[in-house]
Amino acid sequence: xxxxxxxxxxxxxxxxxxxxxxxxxxxxxxxxxxxxxxxxxxxxxxxxxxxxxxxxxxxxxxxxxxxxxxxxxxxxxxxxxxxxxxxxxxxxxxxxxxxxxxxxxxxxxxxxxxxxxxxxxxxxxxxxxxxxxxxxxxxxxxxxxxxxxxxxxxxxxxxxxxxxxxxxxxxxxxxxxxxxxxxxxxxxxx
Length: 190
What we know:
- Helix 1 (3-16) packs across helix 2 (29-40).
- The longest helix is centred in the middle third of the chain and has 16 residues, at 119-134.
- The chain is α+β, with helices and mostly antiparallel strands.
- The protein has seven helices and seven strands, in the order ααββββαβαβαβαα.
């Protein structure tokens, strides 16, 4: 990242808004924005890409051939307006020869989400990465997110949700397996 440019750009934006850069509350804002950018846009730093550890399927005495499902929360930034979009992810894969540690799924999602994105590409990048590492029989990801570029500006429609999905292999091609994934994605804990 070009940290000096981020700091200078922040100063220009504040000046453009008519703010006084010497005001106590704003004095260190450009430096704070640089720190924030290093943290929330870490997806541009290839050294921050998670190292994905895989295990041989069956190494613990169980050769698993059923769906493995994970869900959680993510946030990213819209590349068109630089506002946040955030929501839930629902991920599943059916292992072949390899399995992945469950925390790695969340780390991969967080890494690819930590840059300016559109939700459709984010979905593709995550599934492509996991498929390239695992070579599973099937892989799927649903992202459901609120987009603040739609809520805070423009049309100003609050609580709308955009849903995107990527289905591959047996999860896409087998109706029963696809239905199992969709059912798990809609399951709510009490």
